[in-house]
Design a protein that fits this description.
271 residues; alpha+beta; Glutaredoxin; 2 domains; 7-stranded mixed sheet; two-stranded antiparallel ribbon; 11 strands
């Protein structure tokens, strides 16, 4: 019996080594630099004291429109953009109309012009244009802000979120992106392009909220899926599954050892 226990111990050690090697072989995807000079700065915190002006002409600081205990979606555009920014804002409208979260109760949206020459009147025009296309009736009025700011505030915020642009023949060369912030103003996730997956953005907002929003099932999803920056979406997390499977294996093997030891001791008492 003792010889069997020794062999079983060797087998357990071998299985654990195999499991550990498997976990090590599944590497987390490295952070990448998206196209068009957008640089990811996950975990960086924006300056919440930066001053801006809302579309109604009210002077505000970022903390007044970003926080309230909710994650925030930042949409950098410029309001006179002839093409890309309109597509981006249309994509945001589509996202807000389909995402299974309530705007103003579970998250905020803040659109910021990176053209410091634009004023609140132009911001108000774009606000009316795009908010009028929202179809979800549970959205809270005033939860989607359209801001303008001076050069110092604009440049500081864009640098902090990793969004770069340059003047090009009277227009701006730039990319299209959404930047998600935690309720504390830390950068949590990036989405590039003009077509945003409601499922992926929902998971990212729930993750950014650090447990403040979302159902139990949502948090199970976050355990099973991880954001893949190469694909720009959440994918099945083999790494998490291997960790869970390894922990379960250890528990089962520990239970088996305990049972066999008890059986061996019982046989020794009988003999």
């Amino acid at each position: 019996m003792f010889g069997n226990m020794v062999r079983l111990s060797y087998l357990i050690v071998l299985l654990l080594l195999v499991w550990a090697g498997s976990v090590a072989a599944v590497e987390k995807p490295e952070e990448v630099v998206p196209e068009l000079a957008l640089t990811t700065q996950l975990g960086a915190k924006v300056d919440l004291e930066l001053p801006f002006t809302d579309s109604d002409g009210t002077a505000v600081k970022l903390r007044e429109v970003l926080l309230n205990g909710r994650p925030t979606v930042i949409v950098p555009v410029y309001y006179q953009c002839p093409r890309l920014c309109g597509y981006t804002l249309s994509g945001v409208v589509s996202l807000l109309n389909t995402i299974e979260l309530t705007l103003g109760k579970e998250y905020n949206v803040v659109t910021v012009s990176f053209d410091a020459t634009e004023g609140p009147a132009l911001a108000a025009k774009r606000r009316d244009q795009y908010i009028s296309r929202l179809t979800k009736t549970d959205a809270v009025a005033g939860a989607w802000h359209f801001l303008v700011g001076g050069g110092a505030s604009v440049d500081a915020l864009m640098q902090q979120i990793g969004f770069h642009f340059r003047k090009d023949n009277g227009e701006f060369a730039h990319t299209a992106a959404l930047i998600l912030l935690t309720p504390q103003g830390e950068i949590s996730q990036y989405f590039t392009g003009i077509d945003f997956s409601a499922w992926d953005v929902r998971l990212a907002l729930i993750e950014a909220s650090k447990g403040a929003i979302g159902s139990t099932l949502d948090h199970v999803y976050l355990f099973c899926f991880r954001f893949d920056p190469l694909k720009g979406k959440y994918t099945w997390a083999a790494y998490a599954m291997l960790k869970a499977g390894g922990a379960l294996t250890i528990l089962l093997l520990g239970g088996l050892i305990f049972t066999l030891l008890r059986r061996e001791r019982a046989l020794q008492r009988v003999s």
